[in-house]
Amino acid sequence: MKALVKHADEVGLRLEDVPEPAIGINDVLIGVERTGICGTDLHIWDWNAWAKETVVTPLVIGHEFAGRIVAVGSNVNDFLPGDRVSGEGHVVCGRCRHCLAPRASACSGRARSPS
Q: What mean pLDDT do residues 82-95 have?
């Protein structure tokens, strides 16, 4: 599959072929049909101070996408192949007023229980 990859501590990204991810028992495999570029991606491209402190290379970037589920892991029972989905890059608690609204993108993640 094609992906944008950050290989080194320098400005820029590379579009290249990477292996398709292996699917685990709790995972879904999504065939990406559309993708976007956000501010985080621009920070990674520019390799600014935030990126240098936050990103560990090598890294396949990108978290804004939409597509269809291609396959589901054996423990997944609430999604099916063919379902249309989009990516959500936030780690959410699932219990706060925003998550229950549902406005999970506004969740601070503070109500998460420790793992």
A: 83
Decide if 40 is catalytic: yes
Helices (H), the chain: 39-46, 49-54, 97-100
CB neighbour list of residue 44: distance below 8 Å, 6 or more residues apart: 6, 13, 51, 55, 59, 61
- Pick the catalytic residue from 7, 35, 40, 98: 40
| Closest C-alpha among 28, 53, 32, 31 to residue 43 | 53
pTM metric for this prediction: 0.71
Residue 35 is among the residues annotated as catalytic for this protein: no
In which band, very low, low, confident or very high, does the pLDDT at 110 lie, cut at 50, 70 and 90? Answer: low
- The whole-angstrom separation of Cα 55 and Cα 71 is 29
